[in-house]
Amino acid sequence: MLISALILGLLGSLHCVGMCGPIAFMLPVNRSNSLKKVSQIAIYHFGRLLAYSIIGLVFGLLGKSFYLFGIQQQLSIVIGIIMIVVILLPHKTIGKYNLSKPLYKFISKIKSSLGKALKKKTADTFLTIGFLNGFLPCGLVYMAVFGAIATGSLLEGSIYMVLFGLGTIPLMTTAIYLGKFLNSTIKQRIQKAIPVFVVVIGFLFILRGLGLGIPYISPAPIVETASSAMECH
C-alpha cells in the first residue's frame, strides 16, 4: 500500500504544479550559481516533506486509535469508499461541502507567512517556504491523508505521506527550472489518469479491509490467523 503513495504523488504532481506552481516559480533561488540553486531547491523540498511527515504522524495516530478499537479493517473499507465517491461526485457537489472552509483563518496565516518568506533570500527561507507549502489545502493531499489514516500506524502514516511528497518532487523540480513546459495534450492525459488511479487505490483499500487472505493485497485478519494456528496445535 505504501507504493500507492509514491505513484499517487508521481501522477498527481501535475496537479501539484498547477496548485503550488506559482510558489515554485517565485522561489528566490540563486539564478547565477547552479550549486546554490540545487541546494536551495533541495531545502525547499525537504521542508515540504517535513510538513507531510508531520501530517502523516497526526493522521497515522488517528488511524492507530481505530486499530486499537479493532475497526481498522472497517476503516480501510470506509476510506476506500470515500476516495471513490469523492472522485465520482460532481465538483459542484463537493464544493458545497468544502472541508477547507473552517480552516480559512489558518490558511490565510500560512499564505501571509509564505508571502513574507518569498521576499527573503536567507538559508532558512527555503525550508520555511517548503514547510508552509506542505500545509496548504490540496485535494490530492487529502487523498494521501486518507491513506495515512488507513495505515493505522504513526510510522507508516508518516512514511506514506513522505512517499507521496517524494513522488511530487521530479515534476515540481522540473517546473522550477523550466516553468510551463508541458503541452496541453500531455496535461489532459495526466489529469485524466489521476482520478482513475485514485479509484484503483480506493478499491485496493476496500480489498485490504475485506481480509480475503490474498498476500499483500488483502491479507487475512491477524486474529483469524492466530486462532487458526492455535487450532492446528
From TrEMBL:
The Urease accessory protein UreH-like transmembrane domain, residue ranges: 5-203
Pfam family, one: DsbD_2
Domain of life: Bacteria
Keywords: Membrane, Transmembrane, Transmembrane helix
Residues passing through the membrane, by range: 6-29, 49-69, 75-91, 126-152, 158-182, 194-217
InterPro entries for the chain: UreH-like_TM_dom
Protein name stated in the entry: Sulfite exporter TauE/SafE family protein
